[in-house]
Amino acid sequence: MRDTRESRLLLVLLIAIAFALITVDIRGGEDSPVDGARQAAATVFGPIENGLSGAVDPIGNAVSAVRESGDRHDRLAELERENTALKAELGSDDRSRSRLKQLDGLLKISGQGQYGIKGAQVIAIGAAQGFSWTITIDAGADDGIERDMTVLNGDGLVGRVTTVGPDTATVLLATDPDFTVGTRMETTDELGFASGQGDRPLRVELLNGKAEIKKGDRLVTFGSQADKPFVPGVPVGVVSRVDPSGGGLTRTLSVTPFVSFSKLDVVGVVVQAPEKDPRDTVLPKKPKPAPTPTVTVTVTPPASADGLNQQEQ
């Protein structure tokens, strides 16, 4: 339709009629005179609306599903983050419990031996100062640490301090081939020298080539002059093998250390030696041997020949 004066008048007339019908419909309420026409229009156009609605609903549902899927993905990601955080928290608690246990053992051994110690944590491990078996601890000169001090943990001898900085120190481990410490055998007091052999057991040379030693015997540190580098009585290890003496002046032992050097974390540096040599009192109590089961066998004597004859009769 072209935009003419007549078309504009027709448009105005249609709009006026529409407003009039709306006014009549509203005022009429349920008895509206246009209700019949509205129902007829619903009858004609209702199926078309339903068809369009049915065609549009899958699209709407798909959009809603995508939106809900995104929400579920976000919730899943949130749950995964919470799970990861919980695992980290539990792991942190496990580490805290482990360190608390190590600290408890350290305090126990220092109390038994009357060692004045400075607690420290291992912060590095590896080659340092030309040594191959060393650790670095987070305590140094500012904490009262000096060269040639004994280092131990809750299990026993760890090593000795070799280099000291303001905040850190380097410890030569007892497993290093350059490490040597005087030892004393439990109960027998036999003296010797223990040397490191890397990841192998310690090698101990007893001064008495005829000493009676057996597997399972234990050793502690003998101590040094002025208690440096070693204080006395620190547990060293357990005899795992005894070499034949062969008539030599010394006797060689293989000793498994008490300390697990691959799990070092909390250690203590002995800053004050005990007033009295604790000797072997710091050693842990020996486990009680498991009872040997006994088997009682009851033998039933065979029946006599006369008894058999009587039974046959």
TrEMBL record:
The record's region (Disordered) falls at 275-313
Q: What is this protein for, i.e. what is its function? A: Involved in formation and maintenance of cell shape.
Q: Which gene encodes it?
A: mreC
Which controlled-vocabulary keywords does the entry list?
Cell shape
| Low complexity: bias regions | 293-303
Q: Where do the Rod shape-determining protein MreC beta-barrel core domain residues begin and end? A: 130-270
Keyword match Protease = no
Q: From which source organism is this entry?
A: Streptomyces pimonensis
Recorded protein name is Cell shape-determining protein MreC
Q: To which protein family does this belong?
A: Belongs to the MreC family.
Kindly name one Pfam family recorded for this protein. Answer: MreC
